[in-house]
Amino acid sequence: MILNLAFMFAIFRIAIAGDPNILPDFMARNNTIDANYFTFTEMRQLVGGEYPTTFKALKVTMNEFPTLNGQSVSYVILEFPAGSINPLHIHPRASELMFLVSGSLQVGFVDTSNNLYQQSLQIGDIFVFPKGLVHFQYNNDTKEPALAISAFGSANAGTQLIPTSVFNTSIFEGILDVSFRATRATIRKIEEGLKQ
Ligand SMILES: *[C@@H]1O[C@H](CO)[C@@H](O)[C@H](O)[C@H]1NC(C)=O
Ligand SMILES: *[C@@H]1O[C@H](CO)[C@@H](O)[C@H](O)[C@H]1NC(C)=O
Ligand SMILES: *[C@@H]1O[C@H](CO)[C@@H](O)[C@H](O)[C@H]1NC(C)=O
């Protein structure tokens, strides 16, 4: 009996591992749609384009491309000028599968036992950031930019930036002092840095 329950629980876990399933093939309000409904053209801006001067994430989630609603997939195109970082963050609803198309990247994540896994990626490498874990990406090259494409197993993986969510949301400072075992002055210094 106990084994049966464990087995059923395992099946249940698999069933809720991604976005909810939809019953129609795709979500559309009417039947007058054509292939354009399944096409997103805004990334054409990348063809022959210049790198930005600061780190930039171009998202293709259900917010930018509503057709993805119900399809359990999305992309983010990540542009890293020399020396830039994608700060510590998590994606609450999906794993991230990152493909490094050009340049080099230092990447890493921390698991729930606080083990740090970090890697130095070269062009052509693919790295997976497991769902919901704190991670970062850093272009530690002083001259060359880097370009990466990340796929997500959700149409809306979500992004929670750690610095912003902790230090830029008016959490009572007493909570921050104790949580970080830091003085109020130290906490204020971090908060001020993020307000600029
Ligand atoms: C049909 O649905 C598509 C996609 O949801 C929308 O772009 C289009 O305007 C709709 N057409 C009509 C006639 O409502
Ligand atoms: C960045 O590169 C410098 C020079 O190669 C190296 O000393 C440093 O450890 C690197 N930092 C990271 C985080 O990879
Ligand atoms: C911090 O919050 C302020 C006010 O909401 C905002 O203007 C600023 O961009 C935020 N900083 C970061 C790093 O998100």
TrEMBL record:
It is found in: Secreted, Extracellular space, Apoplast. Keywords: Apoplast, Glycoprotein, Manganese, Metal-binding, Secreted, Signal. It holds the Pfam family Cupin_1. Belongs to the germin family. Oxalate binds at residues 86, 91, 96. May play a role in plant defense. Probably has no oxalate oxidase activity even if the active site is conserved. It comes from the Eukaryota. It comes from Tagetes erecta. GO terms for cellular component: apoplast. The lineage of its organism: Eukaryota, Viridiplantae, Streptophyta, Embryophyta, Tracheophyta. Mn(2+) binds at residues 89, 91, 96, 135. InterPro entries: Cupin_1 (IPR006045), Germin (IPR001929), RmlC-like_jellyroll (IPR014710), RmlC_Cupin_sf (IPR011051). Residues 38-188 form the Cupin type-1 domain. Oligomer (believed to be a pentamer but probably hexamer). The keyword Transcription does not apply. The keyword NAD does not apply. This is Germin-like protein. Residues 1-17 form the signal peptide. One of its GO terms (molecular function) is manganese ion binding. CDD domains: cupin_OxOx (cd02241).
